[in-house]
Amino acid sequence: MSxxxxxxxxxxxxxxxxxxxxxxxxxxxxxxxxxxxxVVILGVSGSGKSTxxxxxxxxxxxxxxxxxxxxxxxxxxxxxxxxxxRLRKVGFVFRFFNLMPQLTARGNVELPLFLADxxxxxxxxxxxxxxxxxxxxxxxxHRPMELSGGEQQRVAIARALANQPKIVLADEPTGNLDTATxxxxxxxxxxxxxxxxxxxxxxxxxxRLTSVADRVIEMRDGQFVxxxxxxxxxx
Amino acid sequence: xxxxxILGLAWTNMKRRKFRTSLTALGIxxxxxxxxxxxxxxxxxxxxxxxxxxxGFEPDIISVLPASDLLTSWGFDYLTLYExxxxxxxxxxxxxxxxxxxxxxxxxVDDDSNHVETRLIGANxxxxxxxxxxxxxxxxxxxxxxxxxxxxILGFLSEPFFHAGDEVKxxxxxxxxxxxxxxxxxxxxxxGILEEVGYSGAVPIDRSLFIPLETCSExxxxxxxxxxxxxVEDPSLAGxxxxxxxxxxFDNVLVLVPSQVIETLDGIFNIINLFLVAxxxxxxxxxxxxxxxIMLVSVMERTREIGIMKALGARSRTVLFQFLAEAxILGFLxxxxxxxxxxxxxxxxxxxxxxxxxxxxxxxxxGTEFYLSPVLSIxxxxxxxxxxxxxxxxxxxxxxxxxxxxxPVRALRYE
Lengths: 235, 415
Hints:
The structure holds 2 protein chains of 2 kinds. Chain A is an alpha/beta fold. Chain A has helices at residues 49-56, 79-88, 105-115, 120-133, 149-160, 179-195; strands at 5-18, 21-34, 38-42, 64-69, 72-73, 90-93, 167-171, 199-204, 215-220, 223-229.
């Protein structure tokens, strides 16, 4: 089964300048992700995997190389256009959930919808659907403070899916959860991937994720060191 | 993102930090309160004084005084009866009344136990009635008929020492031919006591003893005139007649026209008011700086949230507007509350005005019932509100720009 390439990265490099010292966080990475794929990038902390994720999602700009989403070169976009890419084409899930503390679960899911100027009624319907999807129908009106870590991460996943992005990018989504809850989140991501044919890229050092991935890439010192099919591989 | 949504988000943020929001708003509230109360009281004061002056100043009565300049007193030292006759002949002039004014102490002829300090005004009674007739009502007695050398009428006194028909002794201070100060006693018969007139412009009627001008001249052997009170045929002629009189004297006298005096006073009040409001708005500036300060802290604290907003796809402008919206709401609500409190404060101060007047010993000018009502025009209201919002937004610009410019990756890492 071959499907369209949705995301491409060519010779991606990201060098941080810390005073006079240059640190290469990412040193030449090439990647192709197909529509509907579940890709896991494994690496220890400091291997450059978060930097890679930020570049893929248009949250940061590479020092060298380029990222294409559906053939669109992100390096050619203005800051505002890049913000629109983040709004409509990608959805981020973070290790520390990063929910807005003053907003309810529903408010958090609706935030990207309102940023995209979706009418209130439609936003309400959509947030209800998404919170049902992640299994939080009963907790819609709770604020992050009143939710468990796993529940918060479910809200974050619902929020990432709000504007029906092409790709969901998850940065250590299980890193701040206990084993059982982490497993639930992995399961949820897998469901989203299979049932919605949602492309998912996860960076982490959680070996368990390799079991659900279509493809596993290992990273060290800002470079890919091995690529293999995951156990759940369907390619 | 739509403006309504941004405002909603800003409002949610502000509710989360109620205490801090209220503290920030307090600055705006105090600033606006100070400005509005001063402005409202100032306007109230101006209207009150203008009304009183308008009541007292007859628009068709001009006063001619020696000295051309109110501040330096340069010009002639006195006027003459001949000049009064010339003025009476001028076009548009109905009556010209020359007067002499002296200080005096009044006693009963055979009883020194009560005395009153008053003014002695030498004037022609017929002309006095022609000019002020409609305001002269007798509480007791009436005009002397016929007018004798020792005839007199007495203006309203708060002390009921004297009555119509009484013989009074006036102890009059004057300057003699060699320039020395001297007292002379003269006895008058009071034909009538006037009712209270209130403010009456150049000729104070209350607390004055009116005697015939000729008697006044004879008593201290002095023929010069202290002022000429001119009534014009129509108020619209006042300006022209005043100019004719100035020309007649080659600008060596002071001619007071009520409408011009009120205009001048109005101008002075406006300047004072503006000055006071300017001082009060320094408080608003301080409020602005506190907004600046608190917003900067807020941006630091919310760095991560700003990072999240940007990761979700918020443009820099959206983040900027969100912070500005918070400032605008703060300014709007603080402004509203400040205006309300400012008006209340002005009302309370206005009620205290009579005490202030008596503490300063100004009852003679303002009376004992000088309550000030604050006046808050719709323009002042809107201006104060707009000012509060603009100041808030202005001082929030820098922090908001700072927030908008944050690098999302760094902002997300911020602990």
